[in-house]
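Re: the request from the purification team.
They wanted to know what the chain is likely to look like in 3D before they choose a buffer screen. I agreed to run a prediction and write the result into the notebook, where they can find it.
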Amino acid sequence: MNRSYPMKSIFLLTLASILFAFSASAQDAPKPDYGNFSSETLTTKAWEALGQKQYDLAIDYTSKCIEMYAAQAAEMQASLTEPAPAETASSKWALNDVGTCLYIRGQAYEAKGESAKAVADYKKLVGELSFAQTWDTKGWFWRPADAAKQRITVVEFEAL
């Protein structure tokens, strides 16, 4: 009598259970809804996902915004010698949204423990889109590059 048959059955049942659990959890992950694909929509959805601790979803939205609007953001940055005044800051929409998305994605990577990716996004923001501004719902613009500089210092210190 071959006694390995029950062991093979147990192994196959265990493997099938693991695969089923993995596929079920993958299906439970929220799927991105890019809406109208505008930079504003993608940035808003990224903030919401970050606030709900849906880090992969935040990374997805920010990556889509960066992919679609990075060239326009770079052009807008190049046209400035300092941040746009509050009265005209919203006219630099691509710069503002892509810069904000780099900051949000850095935050999401930090939350996931992917410090190197977070620092890379923060450094890209500081180095290439430093004039980006983000509207605070309390009624003013703030610069994500300033916040990114602080995060770089903290994350690199923690890595020591």
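For the purification team: Helices lie at 4-28, 39-51, 55-78, 93-111, 115-128, 144-158.
Please add any questions underneath this entry.
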